[in-house]
Amino acid sequence: MTAVPPTGRREAREGVGYLVLTRTFRAPIEDVWAAVTEPSRMERWIGTWSGDPAEGQVLFRMTAEGEDAPAEPASIDVCDPPRRLVVRTQGGDGSQWQLELDLVEADGVTTLTFGQVMSDPEAASQIGPGWDYYLDRLVASETGGDVGSVDFDDYYPSQSAHYVAAFS
Which of 31, 42, 62, 93 is the most exposed place for a label (fewest CB within 10 A)? Predict the structure, then answer.
């Protein structure tokens, strides 16, 4: 196991606490948008979706969690290609997550800023390392790296204390 340094931080947006992580890509914004919205591209690093996004909801299945991971509804609140996506997911346990992706391109480099509404330090201790892990899988997928070499054990539980401190 090789501990990976955490990259997430707490940020307040209009008085609401967010977990925020950033990644950069030497790629056009449209390419990064495709990596985070097209089912076949997403499946490389996190999961896939089915349904008609024009209806405002799809079913999302985290294939990276295993073949038996259930599909869960994801409501699309904002879709402004190729710059902004806001979705809410409903977990089987009744939990609801609001996730935000913002993309900006400058000089051939696209910056992805990921945010999730977050206030609970205990939840952050698990969710923060999870998003570091998945976003590093995205980077590996988009840069020709080996997604399979990104090991969750390198993120959790070693990053947990960072996220508890950030949200306490």
Answer: 93
Q: How many CB atoms lie within 10 A of CB 53?
A: 14
What 3-state DSSP class applies to 94? coil
| 57/138 Cα distance (integer angstroms) | 23
Query: Rounded to the nearest 10 degrees, how much is the dihedral formed by the CA atoms of 112, 38, 53, 14?
Result: -10
Q: For tokens 């959790």, what's the residue?
A: 156
Confidence grade of residue 95 (pLDDT, cut at 50, 70, 90):
confident
pLDDT range class, residue 91, cuts 50, 70, 90: low
Handedness of CA 115, 116, 119, 124 (dihedral sign): negative
**In the numeric block, which tokens belong to residue 150?**
């990104």
165 backbone dihedrals φ, ψ, rounded to 5°: -60, -40
Is the separation of the CB atoms in 94 and 125 below 8 Å? no
Structure tokens, 134: 């998945």
User: What CA–CA distances, in Å, run from 68 to 5, 39, 42, 113?
Assistant: 30, 18, 17, 29
Minimal CA–CA distance to 118: which of 10, 18, 21, 22? 18
Residue 97: name the closest of 116, 82, 78 by CA. 116
* Fold (topology level) of 9-167: Alpha-D-Glucose-1,6-Bisphosphate; Chain A, domain 4 (3.30.530)
Which pTM does this prediction carry? 0.95
